[in-house]
TrEMBL record:
Name of the protein: Uncharacterized protein
TM spans (from-to): 84-104, 116-146, 166-194, 206-230, 264-283, 295-315, 321-337, 349-367, 544-565
Record bears the keyword Membrane: yes
Organism encoding this protein: Weissella halotolerans DSM 20190
Keywords: Membrane, Transmembrane, Transmembrane helix
UniProt entry tagged with the keyword Iron-sulfur: no
Amino acid sequence: MVLLTLPWLLLLPLLLTGTLSYRHDTWFHLMRIYEIRQAMLHQALPTLGSWFTFGQAGQLIQGLYPSQTLLPLVAITNWLAPVQQVYCIFGLILCAIAASNYLVFKASHLTTNQALLAALTVTYSIPLINLLVYGQLPLALVFIFMPPIFWSLYQLQTNTPHPATATVLGLNIGLTLLTHLPSAFILILLVVLIAGLDLISHRHRFLSFVQAGCWALGIGLPTLVTILVASSQTLAVAKVAQRSFFQWGQLFEEHWHHLGIGPYFGYTPLTLLALTYLALTLWRHDNWRPLKIASLTLFFIYGSNLTLQPLIELVQFPQRFYLYSAQLAIFICLVRLCQQPLGKGVSTIFYIVLASVTLFSAAKTVFHVHQQLQAQTTWQAQPGYHRRLTKITNQTYQQPAFINMRTYRDYLPIEQAPYVKAGKKAFFASEYARDVNQAHSVRPSHFSGNDLHLDKTQPTDFASPVTVNPPKRQHSVPNGIDLWVHLPKSGHYDLPIWQYHYLSYQVFDNGQPRISRVSKQGRLQLKLQAGDHHLQIRLLLPTWLLAAYLTSATSLALLGLYLLCQKRPPYKSKNKAG
């Protein structure tokens, strides 16, 4: 009961303000939630394109950021207003993380009280801050799946692993693939490390890893297929970190620099304690040794400047991924604590101390966020991306400028490659992207980049694009958009819609079907006559994605049936022999 009520008690002061912070990554993920919300309010599921958010231009942010595990959370809470819905989703995630940890700690032979305290320690040490301070919704969701993954990996090191170990491992890796792609690849790397150590130590559990991989592949197929098909025809996520000169004296400087800011990028006493324990006990040849080696290996990869320098060229903010190493280290410490010859009472005292310190820190975090909300003005009073100065309300969502106020290079058509910016400026994509997503300009095809202008007189943090012949009206639907435009003369026009070569589109002009093509900027291009036009643009769900969804659903159904059969007692006949 404590695990399920505590999240709501912590979130209640924030919920009662009726406002929400959009600092760090929060705005980005708020738009993902809002996209799903609007699609469901139209009695549909969201498609690959973002039609209600991110400029309402069909950019594939919604489709290429895995959202499948977010769908049920939005569906459950869609009767609430937008701000209250977000807080409710946060609460449900915290409840799920706490329950997942509790069940795993119970399965690891902790007492009920110890499992409860350990679950509180894990849930409120990092995930709460990920949600409330940094807005890292996908990372927080992955914390639900990490405990079963860690438990499965340990079970495979024992002499008599649980019969469902490989299935549980595959299920949770697959669900991670449907949640957050970088997390999935890092956890897969963890599994590969353990499997390699399994081969070296001749434990002969390699087939279990293969079985888990098959389950994960089947469940996570929609994400894998989508990324595989789209990777060569879309732009990747912007890399904004700067590479710096490496010095041996600054091997772990990146995380020490953030110490005290929070556990998103920096060390905390709990993570330092756990990692130190692993390093000091690595010499012990027990079932935990492979997991300790894997945790310290991941820590060195994502926690030291030696490997961060080349990773920065490939991944956005690779520093954050040391969290997986830290969480594994914390898991090992919390399980091993009850196995030490200290006595049950002494061990429980340690759990109480850890949980108390963690909950005190969580309360301070909530208090700090509440103070910020009290001090900030609403977005409507100061429009623009002033995320440190303003907060949002339910009325904020009704402002078109709010859902269109940022553009990203993430997953734009490959034709945008010559125009997008690099480094931190990549957050604002290019003048071309802003002309589509923010200005919604309808331009004659083959226009010059010199025709794009910014209005730098606007009192905002970034200049606004100058609009050219925007639609008189537009209306989004879950799989597309309707535009009402007036054209002064006949010719080829680039609409404020992104089009991708590998996807199929249906276009109707005043009820008549038209064939579109991809312009040299990646826009949807049509040949149109002068006058008024009602354009209906629909993005079709590709057959390959439907097949992937069917495979994923079938895999989940078969896996659920398998786990159900594992729990059923064997049938015994009532007829006596003879």
